[in-house]
């Protein structure tokens, strides 16, 4: 490696993540290239702590999900109430409180398939639902 390249590498090591992102954007614009197709060349510019944290987040696949009822349109309230009761096995009074006090997590720690099924049932009834 030439001295010029070694000096550049040492300079790059001192960049913050924000500065590295700005550098990548500037290189993309200047040379009309796309760094995202380079097989992770942007990752090499990050400091080692950022790389290991990012790797840990991408390796772990989430297995448990929370079903959160975000919004209940007034005209769909009764239909959604019925689905909430069937999904949560709550009584009428408790289910009504859940529906009227959105956003609210209605089921916690569900496997992905069960969470998606509950979400689909609620959305079919007219609710706005997210999985966390």
TrEMBL record:
Coiled coil ranges: none
Signal peptide positions (record): none
InterPro entries registered for this protein in UniProt: Ribosomal_bL12, Ribosomal_bL12_C, Ribosomal_bL12_C/ClpS-like, Ribosomal_bL12_oligo, Ribosomal_bL12_oligo_N_sf
Domain Large ribosomal subunit protein bL12 C-terminal: residue ranges: 65-132
GO cellular component: cytosolic large ribosomal subunit
Record Pfam families: Ribosomal_L12, Ribosomal_L12_N
GO molecular function, one term: mRNA binding
GO biological process, one term: translation
Domain Large ribosomal subunit protein bL12 oligomerization span(s) in chain numbering: 4-49
Family stated for the protein in its record: Belongs to the bacterial ribosomal protein bL12 family.
HAMAP family: Ribosomal_bL12 (MF_00368)
UniProt xrefs under NCBIfam families: L12
Name used for this protein in its record: 50S ribosomal protein L12
Native source organism of the sequence: Fucus spiralis
Record lineage: Eukaryota, Sar, Stramenopiles, Ochrophyta, PX clade
Gene that this sequence comes from: rpl12
């Amino acid at each position: 490696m030439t001295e010029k390249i070694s000096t550049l590498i040492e300079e790059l090591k001192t960049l913050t993540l924000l500065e590295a992102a700005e550098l990548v954007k500037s290189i993309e614009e200047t040379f009309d290239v796309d760094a995202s197709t380079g097989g992770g060349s942007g990752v090499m510019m990050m400091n080692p702590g950022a790389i290991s944290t990012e790797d840990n987040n991408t390796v772990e696949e989430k297995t448990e999900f929370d079903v959160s009822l975000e919004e209940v349109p007034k005209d769909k309230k009764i239909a959604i109430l019925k689905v909430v009761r069937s999904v949560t096995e709550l009584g009428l009074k408790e289910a009504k409180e859940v529906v009227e006090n959105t956003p609210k997590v209605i089921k916690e720690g569900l496997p992905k398939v069960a969470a998606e099924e509950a979400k689909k049932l609620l959305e079919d009834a007219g609710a706005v639902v997210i999985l966390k």
